[in-house]
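Hi P.,

Sorry for the delay on this. The queue was packed all week, but I finally got your sequence through. Input first:
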Amino acid sequence: MTKLQKKPIKLGLEKVLNEQKVQLKNLRVGLICNQATVNHQFRHAADLFFENTDINLVALFGPQHGIRGDVQDNMIETLHEIDKKTGLPIYSLYSETRQPTGAMLENLDALIFDLQDVGCRVYTFIYTLANSMKSCAEFGKKMFVLDRPNPLNGISVEGSLLEIGHESFVGQFPIPMRHGLTVGEIAKLFNREFDINCDLEVITMDGWSREDFYDATDSPWVMPSPNIPTVDTTIVFPGTVYLEGTEVSEGRGTTRPFEIVGAPFINAQELAVSLKSLELPGVMFRSTKFIPTFQKHAGKVCEGVFLHVTDREIYESVITGVAVVKTIFDLYPNEFKWKETPYEYVFDRNPFDVISGTFKTRQFIEKGMDLKGIKTSWQHDVKKFTKLRKKYLMY
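Then the structure:
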């Protein structure tokens, strides 16, 4: 039996350590990282930088879920602390502040961002990036971004643009739900298009191509946050994340979050048959039962579906997620509820609207618009963004 061949790539982290250290010479640097910030030998960037006598690492910064990814809950703030291994201060950028302060940056010359993104607008790491870039611009610091693959490939773009007035920490800028950019590319786009204008340098990867899904490469996979355990999770996430804006479980508290969705009031077989009838490309819906161990419906038997992506090349994650929400809404109008508690500390908007970046998607569902109409509504946005992003593509 032959071993499956993976495309070899070199990460931005590995290039800056092995080929481009001179760019960090004589700089006091802070590293924005978490447990997935590793090289091909699964060694953490903080340890690699700390051990390297040519690099002066003086502070660590952690995103949502903490620097070790151990904060399970979706919106629990993390504390500032001291890293036990290096003795360096860890500043939480998901705390009383989402942005590095002047005091945090006082003894630094540069920030280095090295986080694994999942290619979706609502994943907060790209706003930790944007906020850090803003602080670098404000306080005169250099910003380095060490690039990593977009797990969803770098071609597909899906979903409506976030609308002005719907900004939050899960959507600061008018980009679509599935943006098709690496973190390095999105940093360049943010910097120029949204007038951040920091001193930015992106350390690119070698070997990655736009058509590559993450597991087509030999990149080391460490789950970037507690409920993104596998590459398969990232494939469905830009769609089933919409369930976070409802009282239907998105599978948190199971071993396959975002691939499993359901609620106690759902008839699994009925839902699966209804979704199959839509003939959505590249996906099969299998009826299932599950008991979440925490969060929505914890300890209760839920019925729903497991999303099996059969062809990633044609699978459309965003419209599939909207289809799941719409179908449950249509089948169970008396039981279905939009989430009512605040989402990402936004108190003046429906949580589903916060995730959608617009109130229109919810209204389309409530008014009975068909899926074709919903998808057609964002095609202009997709074309507009696809044209805009061309000048920032590096691969």
